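Researcher: We plan to redesign the surface later, but first we want a full-length starting point. Tokens attached.
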């Protein structure tokens, strides 16, 4: 489907076990020895992410790869990159340009505001689609509004009129505000993301600026007024014709930080709209496996989002070895939790999906248990 959408690019598949040349190329470009010290362990991606792995190459040299895309959102990330290249270097002939995605039926319902209505996109693959929508909005310097609803026809408060109201409000802000609809019941991935973000009231609108939730609107009563109130200050900072002001820098994003642990130990950590905490995933250029962060009183933690702690959901570990303990609760995954290929055991699969959905959305799940106070003896930091 992607090859048909982007005929100006050449797509090839490479089986890393399809022969010696394929295997050699894979080891040269993306493979690494497994972290687990077990005979049955298989090679893993060098970045620490999960399969699939997609690489982008530029003729005539082809090697090394210009960029790689990995884990569950690899396809969405590659598509976003190709769209950008299509707009800058490799345009399609006008007659072959794809038609714009139409607004969902709900967007034509009742509501107030001017005649202009925004075209609302759809979230169907949970965190994967959310991340793509956030990337698109961020690249355009726009604010993103995610409208959470229940059921294709809306909830008891009138989902159709709710979406119409949202489309009308957003239409008044032009290109400075984008919107997507997230139906909790549309897919398991949407349901998992809603649970991770603690979405319980329908409708709930999350307003993102620069990849962060800055406000939330809950309930259908007075929705248009509340949404205008949430968007007003953001529109004042960044008019529709200008790029949005960059979000405040995350003080805990760098390899080392002096951020206090007080915010990290509060009960509200990871809540939509709340401040980022020390336990949340790193942002910007540091949002990659292997990033290190200083945890006052606990030592230096290593970020491994593909193998989060299955007790508390934290992606930060006391070291890079297989027997390292969770930085937040001290759990050790060596004896239980993950199999030889670093995949969650069946009894942990549902919890793993909920945790990783929250991490992909930029938050570490809330946990109120006892905190680990010091790194374990003998562990690397």
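Model: Full-length starting sequence:
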């Amino acid at each position: 489907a992607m090859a048909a959408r982007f005929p100006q690019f050449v797509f090839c598949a490479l089986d890393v076990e399809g022969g010696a040349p394929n295997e050699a190329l894979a080891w040269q470009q993306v493979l690494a020895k497994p972290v687990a010290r077990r005979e049955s362990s298989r090679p893993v991606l060098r970045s620490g992410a999960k399969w699939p792995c997609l690489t982008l190459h530029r003729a005539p040299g082809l090697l090394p790869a210009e960029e790689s895309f990995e884990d569950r959102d690899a396809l969405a990330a590659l598509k976003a990159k190709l769209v950008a290249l299509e707009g800058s270097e490799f345009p399609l002939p006008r007659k072959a340009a794809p038609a714009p995605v139409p607004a969902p039926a709900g967007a034509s319902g009742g509501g107030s505001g001017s005649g202009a209505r925004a075209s609302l996109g759809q979230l169907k693959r949970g965190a994967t689609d959310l991340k793509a929508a956030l990337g698109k909005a961020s690249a355009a310097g726009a604010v993103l509004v995610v409208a959470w609803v229940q059921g294709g026809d809306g909830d008891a408060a009138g989902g159709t009129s709710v979406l119409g109201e949202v489309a009308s409000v957003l239409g008044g802000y032009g290109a400075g505000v984008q919107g997507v609809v997230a139906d909790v019941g549309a897919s398991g991935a949407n349901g998992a993301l809603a649970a991770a973000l603690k979405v319980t009231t329908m409708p709930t609108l999350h307003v993102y600026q620069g990849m962060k939730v800055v406000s939330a609107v809950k309930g259908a009563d007075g929705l248009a007024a509340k949404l205008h109130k949430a968007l007003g200050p953001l529109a004042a900072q960044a008019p529709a014709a200008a790029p949005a002001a960059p979000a405040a820098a995350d003080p805990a994003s760098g390899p080392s930080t002096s951020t206090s642990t007080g915010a990290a130990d509060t009960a509200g950590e990871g809540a939509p709209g709340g401040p980022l905490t020390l336990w949340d995933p790193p942002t910007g250029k540091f949002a990659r496996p292997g990033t290190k962060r200083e945890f006052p009183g606990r030592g230096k933690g290593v970020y491994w989002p593909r193998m989060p702690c299955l007790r508390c959901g934290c992606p930060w570990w006391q070291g890079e070895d297989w027997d390292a303990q969770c930085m937040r609760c001290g759990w050790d995954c060596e004896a239980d939790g993950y199999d030889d290929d670093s995949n969650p055991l069946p009894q942990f699969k549902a919890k793993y999906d909920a945790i990783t959905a929250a991490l992909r959305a930029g938050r570490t799940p809330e946990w109120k248990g006892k905190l680990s106070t010091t790194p374990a003896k003998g562990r690397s930091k």
